[in-house]
Design a protein that fits this description.
Layout lengths: L4 E4 L8 E8 L13 E7 L4 E4 L13 E4 L17
Parallel strand pairs: 1-5
Antiparallel strand pairs: 2-3, 3-4
Amino acid sequence: MPQEYGMPKCCISCESYDHKGYTRDEWQLMNDRQCSGRSQYGSCEKHHSEVFATEICNIYEQIPGVTVVTVINRPVSKEVRQERLF
């Protein structure tokens, strides 16, 4: 049986997210000395924009085999964009 992995339910565990690296982030969640003032970011295939790994949107698609944990959304996104309305 394959092992499942736990991740937050945000961009980093979404099928549309492609990780790029770290970037300056005024509102960062990590208190890691190595990442101080920076957060993980990547690109979103669905929004065609750059996103922080900890953003949450309404078109999230969970990566298969990942158990997700609901988390709160960050107050500011990497790029301003309009969400698709359902």
